[in-house]
Design a protein that fits this description.
Helix content: 25-40%
GO molecular function, one term: ethanolamine-phosphate cytidylyltransferase activity
CATH architecture of the largest domain: 3-Layer(aba) Sandwich
Strand order of the largest sheet: 3-2-1-4-5
Number of helices: 14
Oligomer: single chain
Distance between the termini: 37 Å
CATH superfamily of the largest domain: HUPs
Pathway: Lipid metabolism; Phospholipid metabolism; phosphatidylethanolamine biosynthesis; phosphatidylethanolamine from ethanolamine: step 2/3
Shape: globular
Organism: Cryptotermes secundus
EC number: 2.7.7.14
CATH class of the largest domain: Alpha Beta
Radius of gyration: 21 Å
Number of strands: 10
Family: Belongs to the cytidylyltransferase family.
Length: 367
């Protein structure tokens, strides 16, 4: 009997999707490529706290963030922590997809054991160099290593192993983080590659978009509604550090590029955009309107307004997304709950290490 190629293949993914980052997005991109329609189940705050420790983002924030990822067709809220055949059948999904890392319940049970046993499980490659645990660690450690410049820019980090066990010396192969190494192929995979149509109204926005969050998402939705094609200019790490200070940006430019490319409202990204929006930039991209949110506009290095030119042309608009979330507020959440997150990260690394060693011991016994 020949396979019905006209049938829609429905794919299921589930998880916490805490501090939704480009690693999550890349996993969902790969999952969508295995079928036609992607459904993502997301655990609620109580389930995550029980099995993993407190999440950084609330469940409502996590639901909204995943809905904003361009490869996601549908989101199911508050799904069980262990993926069952009943869940797959309820949503008419052919199989479940997860990354090649191990996810355990509080009791040390593989959360995908049921779908694996039934042959309805597929694996995609985890994005090396990023995890929610690592991002939490960057904020707690307040290091600046993630945006090294010059000859050290692409070095894999080797700071002394912290009490969080989050750097490249950390023991767990999943929680431990090697620096993200970007490639042009990854950018191509994340990009739509579609130029604007001749009559499209082109909107331009610029900023750091660090630790991409619901505030960014709501702003970009409003900006996209102003036209047909949204171009997002990302400032370089030194520029962001100049106007934000401390150890900002938390995510380096390469990481921020993939984070915004995964957003369904973004059409194109300017990598390393100039801080001042010039006449040349507006002409080059045929910009009809430049938009900015409610965050204060920081002056350029020479003290000038970076939006002088679009304002002169009458092509500047302030937007109110009515969302007050900022990157700084996320960092403060982490710092205010430091001990809880340190405990969560320790517990997670310990379980992952035990599972990893058990898996390899089993493999060695069967050889």
């Amino acid at each position: 009997m020949s396979e019905d190629k006209s049938r829609t293949v429905r794919v299921w993914c589930d998880g916490c999707y805490d501090m939704v980052h480009f690693g999550h997005a890349n996993s969902l991109r790969q999952a969508k490529a295995l079928g036609d329609y992607l459904i993502v189940g997301i655990h609620n705050d109580n389930e995550i706290t029980k099995h993993k420790g407190p999440p950084v983002f609330t469940e409502e924030e996590r639901y909204k963030m995943v809905r904003g990822i361009k490869w996601v067709d549908e989101v199911v809220e508050g799904v069980p922590y262990v993926t069952s055949l009943e869940t797959l059948d309820k949503y008419h999904c052919d199989f479940c997809v997860h990354g090649d890392d191990i996810t355990m319940t509080a009791d040390g049970v593989d959360t995908y054991h049921l779908v694996k046993a039934a042959g309805r499980y597929k694996e995609v490659q985890r994005t090396a160099g990023v995890s929610t645990t690592d991002l939490v660690g960057r904020m707690l450690l307040m290091t600046r290593q993630h945006f090294r410049q010059g000859p050290l820019e692409y070095d894999v980090g080797h700071e002394g192993s912290s009490q969080l066990g989050l750097d490249s010396d950390a023991r767990s192969p999943y929680t431990g983080c090697s620096q993200f190494l970007p490639t042009t192929q990854e950018i191509i995979q994340f990009s739509d590659g579609k130029p604007p149509k001749p009559n499209d109204r082109i909107i331009y926005v610029a900023g750091a978009f660090d630790l991409f969050h619901v505030g960014h998402l709501d702003f970009l939705e409003k900006a996209r509604a102003e036209g047909d094609y949204l171009i997002l200019g990302l400032h370089t790490d030194p520029i962001v550090n100049r106007y934000k200070g401390s150890n900002y940006p938390i995510m380096n430019l390469h990481e921020r590029v993939l984070s915004v490319l995964a957003c369904k409202y973004v059409s194109e990204v300017v990598i390393g955009a100039p801080y001042a929006v010039s006449q040349n930039l507006m002409e080059h991209f045929k910009v009809d309107m430049v938009c900015h949110g409610q965050t204060p506009i920081q002056p350029d290095a020479d003290g000038s307004d970076p939006y002088t030119e679009p304002k002169r042309q009458g092509k500047f608009k302030l937007l109110n997304s009515e969302n007050t979330m900022t990157t700084e507020k996320i960092v403060n959440r982490i710092i205010n709950h430091r001990l809880e997150f340190e405990h969560r990260n320790h517990k997670k690394e310990k379980r992952e290490l035990e599972a990893y060693e058990a898996f390899h011991n089993l493999n060695n016994e069967t050889l």
